[in-house]
User: What shape does this take?
Amino acid sequence: MERKLELIEKMEAKGMSVDQAAEAIAFDPKVLKLYLVKDAYPVPKRILDKLETALAN
Assistant: This one.
């Protein structure tokens, strides 16, 4: 969950919306919005990896 929250914070710091993040990783924005709620629900590692890569660019 920590990694999820860190990535959400990075997205917010960059001013990146969930829709933009979904486009960057070629993922369904509706599903990504559900994953990126600030809660304890886990996000698949592959999605977190893709998000991390997209935010690094």
About this structure: The first helix runs from residue 2 to 14.
